[in-house]
Specification:
Rossmann fold, 6-stranded mixed β-sheet, 6 helices, 203 residues, alpha/beta
């Protein structure tokens, strides 16, 4: 299949309705950090972009939201063409320019503080990171506390960035600035907003 065909096929069949379904799942996940939300398979993007991450991108990105791709995604012309065709979003030149970032390999990614952090006046001008993860249960357990969580919540995504808990503490300290994370797994997603505190289960 040529790049031109790959860049058009596999988007939302019913763009408005599908986008609303995924957007609602993301909003519910942001309101209840660590709670897993089901996301039906609504997209067939070119590899290595996953269906859940692609659905999140199609629901959130538009021509006003520059998107950063990590090296595995950046290397695939078909991924860039597909996102450009279905969202109209321009590619960000640097992580600090990105409104959204798609990360296929979180373990090897640049530090969280290299992405847009927002400002005190406009904290929403920060990057929302969409991590592609294999699942939400097979990695080291993360204990979550904070707004939207009754006492504690737990999630265990594999392949998270190096020194993630330490990096996330620093992210908390920048509040109201800081990044938010969407964990996109096959058929489901969960969110880590900047207000959520994270500990490892050993701590």
């Amino acid at each position: 299949m040529d790049i031109a065909t790959q860049s058009i096929d596999g988007g939302f069949a019913e763009p408005v309705f599908n986008a609303q379904v995924v957007f609602r799942a993301i909003m519910d996940a942001m309101a209840r950090p660590g709670a897993v939300q089901d996301v039906p398979q609504l997209t067939r993007p070119p590899a290595p972009l996953s269906a859940t991450a692609a659905a999140a991108a199609l629901s959130l990105c538009d021509n006003d939201t520059p998107v950063w791709l990590d090296p595995p995604l950046q290397a695939e012309a078909s991924v860039k063409a597909w996102l450009g065709f279905h969202t109209g979003a321009p590619m960000a030149n640097t992580p600090a320019d990105a409104h959204f970032a798609l990360i296929a390999n979180p373990k090897e990614m640049a530090a969280l503080d290299g992405f847009a952090q927002g400002t005190q006046e406009y904290p929403d001008r920060s990057t929302t990171l969409i991590f592609l993860v294999d699942d939400l249960a097979s990695g080291p357990s993360l204990l979550l506390e904070g707004p939207g969580i009754e006492k504690t919540s737990m999630i265990a995504p594999p392949g998270m960035p190096r020194h993630f808990v330490e990096q996330w503490k620093q992210n908390n300290q920048r509040f109201p600035r800081g990044v938010d994370i969407i964990l996109a797994a096959p058929g489901s997603l969960a969110c880590l907003p900047r207000t959520t505190r994270i500990k490892t289960m050993e701590a």
